[in-house]
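lol so apparently i was supposed to do this last week
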Amino acid sequence: MFFGVGSSPARWLDFLFPPSCHLCRSPLQRGRYLCLPCRDSLPRVSSPLCLQCGFPFDGTQPDPTSCPNCEDRSFAFDFARATLLARDGARELVHSFKYERRLHLHHELASLVAEALDDERLSSDTNTEWTVVPVPLHWRRQQWRWFNQAREIAKTLADLRALPIHDALRRSRFTTQQTLLNRKQRLQNLHGAFQLTRREKRHHFLRGKAVFLVDDVFTTGSTAHECARVLKEEAGAEKVVVLTALRG
Ligand SMILES: [Zn+2]
Ligand SMILES: [Zn+2]
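anyway here it is w/ zinc ion bound
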């Protein structure tokens, strides 16, 4: 593999792309890739939303504690919070980052994910010390893509908020692309797909800790559930909150 798991191709790719808005192409200051009007126009996830999976309602939902995605499920994570709805410019942004390898977008995406920290369940809690954990990719997929999009976002988010980042999980089984599967198949496909890293097994960094589990997109929650299950049951994490750029 050309890049080590711990290194960050996004850091030096920052220097290769001329600073202009990814969506409207207007020129920008160095290091920025979204102009303010385009950034402000991205569709935000806003209240009222499902208190488990973060699915936003149209404002008339009588019971904000459950939604069609999770009324018959119980997730291992405490709750999930995304910043953007997976449509329009928001979808294009993440798609370019992930599939067209526009790694220089990592900073914009991480600062958008950081908006989710304004959720009052997080902003009102100033005592908890959080550790950022990225959702891992299988090494074969990472070799093909040459980076893990979740880790790039997680690393920059950790830098922005002065939080520790810890690669506590590894993907031990290569799984079929989740996008082709229904919810039940996704869960079966993922069961046992994640394990703790050897380092976490040896040092128990996360025992009793609160974790921000970071990914690019939250769809059915199957991946986040399986990661959170391992973090709680095997690492002994006390709390897992899922943060993503998109809510699919
Ligand atoms: Zn723009
Ligand atoms: Zn829900």
